[in-house]
Amino acid sequence: MAESVAATPTDAELVAGCRKGDPEAWNALVERFARYVSAIATQAFRLPAPDAEDVFQDVFARVYERLDTLRSDEAIRPWIGQLTRNCCLDLLRSSNRVVLVAEPDEQLADEVIARLDEALDVRDGLASLGPECRDILDRFFCRDESYRTISGELQIPAGTIASRISRCLGQLRSELEGRNHPTSSSSE
Amino acid sequence: MTAYNEERLGELLRMLPPAPAGWVTAAQELPFARIQLDALVERAEADAAFRASVVDDLELALRAAGVEPKPAIVDHLRKRLAR
């Protein structure tokens, strides 16, 4: 089941929809940040899957319950990042943890989170590409699918996949560099 | 300005693999059932007989609590009771 990364509502629009109780907005918001939350838990804090899942559910439960406390709808992303960070630290420091691990290295975790933030920027850039590029880049890099699998799934010759990936990366690069060199005022 | 080459873009894209589908589905569904689930688990923790009946038939227990027993919710309840 592929997630949609198509041009969809902004973060703020999704938050506004969630505040109104729109379940579709909630579903989309979870989908949009699922990778980010999961990656913070598993990569920045190296939690094993069961703990990462607990954090994942806890974060989204807190987001749902505390959405009204978010001062700016545009701030949902850093807020979710901070909530996830705090949930991971709470779990690692909880006294009833069976497996005692070393004190979490917050500095290292924050460095990973900074890279994940950048990765999320790049992922946001995918939304500006056509569906074919979004799909092939997601399959190859994010889902780690082989050329053979991609060829079979997308019904395209395996011999053309490398060049398609390269072309799509070029488009993504142009998109991201265009954002870094705005010709008009940025929305950020 | 951030400079991107193909290798760096690939590295960054690889950092965000999909979260497990079951996690996503549960996160989408759980908030709407959380109050009832919390009450169910709290009662099960305080009453061994009730806990046994819930464990015996999770779906029935959820229905009795007014929660539609979707797979993600049943799975979540099972995990919480197993802790």
Please explain how this structure is put together.
The complex is a heterodimer of chains A (188) and B (83). Chain A is an all-alpha fold and 188 residues long. Chain A folds into two domains: 1-114, RNA polymerase sigma factor, region 2, helix turn helix motif (Rna Polymerase Sigma Factor, Chain: A, Orthogonal Bundle), CATH 1.10.1740.10; 128-188, Arc Repressor Mutant, subunit A (Orthogonal Bundle). Helix content of chain A is 68%, strand content 0%. Chain A has eight helices and no strands. The two termini of chain A are 31 Å apart. With 83 residues, chain B is mostly helical. Chain B has one domain. Chain B has helices at residues 6-14, 21-46, 48-56, 58-64, 71-82. The radius of gyration of chain B is 19 Å and the shape is elongated. Chain B starts with 5 loop residues before the first helix and ends with a helix. The mean pLDDT of chain B is 89.
Notable characteristics:
heterodimer; A: mainly alpha; Rna Polymerase Sigma Factor, Chain: A; Arc Repressor Mutant, subunit A; 2 domains; globular; disordered C terminus; B: about 80 residues; mainly alpha; 5 helices; about 75% helix
Order of helices and strands of chain A: HHHHHHHH
| Content of β-strand of chain A | under 5%
Order of helices and strands of chain B: HHHHH
Rg estimate of chain A, integer Å = 18 Å
SSE order and pairing:
The complex is a heterodimer of chains A (188) and B (83).
Chain A: H1 11-19, H2 23-44, H3 49-66, H4 76-93, H5 106-126, H6 131-142, H7 147-154, H8 161-180
Chain B: H1 6-14, H2 21-46, H3 48-56, H4 58-64, H5 71-82
Helix pairs in contact in B: 2-3, 2-5, 3-4
Task: Describe the structure concisely.
Chain A is mostly helical and 188 residues long. Chain A contains eight helices and no strands. By secondary structure, chain B is an all-alpha fold.
